[in-house]
Structure formats: C-alpha cells, structure tokens
Amino acid sequence: MVFNFKVFKKSSPNGKITMYLGKRDYVDHISGVEPIDGVILIDNDYKDRKVFGQVVCSFRYGRAEDEVMGLNFQKDLFLVSEQLYPVEKANTSKMQERLIRKLGPNAFPFTFIIPPSAPASVTLQPGMEDEGQPCGVNYFVKIFTGENDTDRSHARSTVAMTVRKIQYAPSKQGRQPCTVVRKDFMLSPGELELEVTLDKQLYHHGEKIAINICIRNNSNKIVKKIKAMVQQGVDVVLFQNGQYRTAVASLETQEGCPIQPGSSLQKVVYLVPLLSSNKDRRGIALDGQLKNADTNLASTTLLASPDQKDAFGIIISYAVKVKLYLGALGGELSAELPFVLMHPKPGKTNKLIHADSQVDTEMFRQDTVDPDNELD
C-alpha cells in the first residue's frame, strides 16, 4: 500500500528557491515547542550561493495607517537564524527523507528550534475601517540568499511562509472553580451572600459554560437584577497599562427577582463565548490566523510560571463574572471565577510515513500569485 502525506510548498518569485513544510501549526508543550522541519529545493543556478533561514516573530502593536513621522508600530524578533546551504546534512525526519528522495540531490533539509518562552500566535480583531496587517503576534519562516544571515535579502530570491505557535488544552481538568463573596451595609444589619460555581475549570471552544449561582439575602436590601458574563482578558506585555477586559458573552435576567430580605435563590445560567457573537468588535483577541480563514476567540495562554511572560507576547485569560444589582442606593455585589478556554488536543490520526510513501507532485508548480500551495 502506498501512503500520501501533505506538505506545504512556496517558491520565491524568481523560482530559484522553493520551501516545503510538513505542517504550519507547531504545538507549544510548555516544556518545549515542536521543531519546524522542512526542505529547501535550490535551482542549479544558485548552487554557488549561500542560503540562510530564519524564524521571525513579528509583533505589531499599532495600526499601519498611524505610522507617520518615522514611527513604526512593528517589531521583528529573530528567534532562529542559520545557514542552510552549503552545510553538512543533519539528522532528518521521515517526512524530510521522503521529500529529499522525491525532489533529488538539490533538496536539503532544515530544522529550527523555537525557544519555549516565545509567545503564542494571537491576532487582535481589527475594526471595520482598519486596513493593513492586524495587530498581534505572528510567525513566519524566511529563506533567502546572501553573504551572511544579516544581509539584506532581495525579494526576488526570498521565500517566506506564515506558521503558527499554538497550545492545546491539558488532558486533565483542574480544581472546580468556586467562590463566595459577601457584602454588608452601613447602618443595616445582616449581609448579602453570593456563591458562584462552574461545573468545571477547562472548557473547549464552542462548549456551553454552566454557571451555578446561589444567593442568600440576609440583609434588608432587595436584589433587583442578575447579570452574568464571560470576560476575555488581554495583557499586552510590552506596555505597563496594556491590560484590558472585554465581555464576549453576557446574560441579564430578572427571573427569580426581586429577592426580598430573608429570601434565597439558586439557579443555573448558561453562556457560550463565540467569535460569531463578536464579529464587529475591535480589539477582541483571536487565535493566530493563516491566510484570511475564519478563526475563533483566542485560547487561554498557559505559562510554566508567571515570570515567563515574553515582552513580545499577548497573554490571554478568561473569567466568569456575576453581578447583583441592588438599586441606586444598595449598589452592586460581584464575584469572579477564572477558567481555561482552549482547543482539545487532536487525536493521532496521522499515518506513519512508510518507506513507500509518496507526495502527490501533480500540483508542485512555481506560482508567484498564490503564496501558499497545499499538496495532498
């Protein structure tokens, strides 16, 4: 039996250098990141030149149309910069071996190791009137010719392909989130108690969040309204005041209200944070995008320790907030519970690459219009 496997191909404008990657999503396992392994195919005309490769983390923190008077709201961090040709061939993966066998003697493998502290791919949703590249963190692999890795590359002999650094949800649930808050009132006896519990700590994108609310009114105030919301927290580490929160799902209800003094109420409300409900909201954090395909709300950022925040990073967090409204004189009482929102780790559906594996090369062609060619 002959197996086919997918690779992504992109050629430089002059067609002299072609890059092949086995995938474009690289998983951060907290302790380390999957290596970026690929193959470059060099034309005979370029066999006497040096070829270099880089992994670039590009952090855009301002709109391109606001870049005036020499201002630049983009920083590029070169995580890896190495000479790829001519060098001695290193250890190769099964995918690289099959590609080299298929492409011939002008194909050379490369492997890049991303540091574990590098930030995750995140895009901040632009406004309807915004143009150009959206703010956020994205990665690309760049291959070019030159005398050294700091040489200014020429567009005609440079090839770059966007990749993503992503995280998947842990396999185990954490402790069930629960909190109790109380409020007493000046010149009034008793207190108002609010208990909020989530059914679990870890949710997958699109999953319904069950919020259990228990209110015990031992005060002489009246609870008139309840509001529950899911808040997305965005921390742009580069700026000291770069933290903000946005409600990505909310529900307001007066069911069971008013809650009179001496009464109690227990109810469960459900919220589902989805991008489809926040399509027109500027600044919402999304998972990094490839091409212009639809994505989803950004996943929670998992850190080995709070000190590992990279200056180029955007840290994402989520919390459920429940507020009780007591009227103009009574004020409010609120409780918050953090939780984790991520994609589950995909099942191992990829077949092992056997010695007789093949890459379908019918679509292998140089194309300077469509930047990314997928090959199945």
Automatic annotation (TrEMBL):
Domain of life, per lineage: Eukaryota
A Pfam family: Arrestin_C
Arrestin C-terminal-like domain mapped to chain residues: 188-346
Keywords: Sensory transduction
InterPro entries to which the protein is assigned, alphabetical: Arrestin, Arrestin-like_C, Arrestin-like_N, Arrestin_C-like, Arrestin_N, Ig_E-set
Protein family (similarity comment): Belongs to the arrestin family.
This protein's name: Arrestin homolog
Species per Swiss-Prot/TrEMBL record: Nicrophorus vespilloides (Boreal carrion beetle)
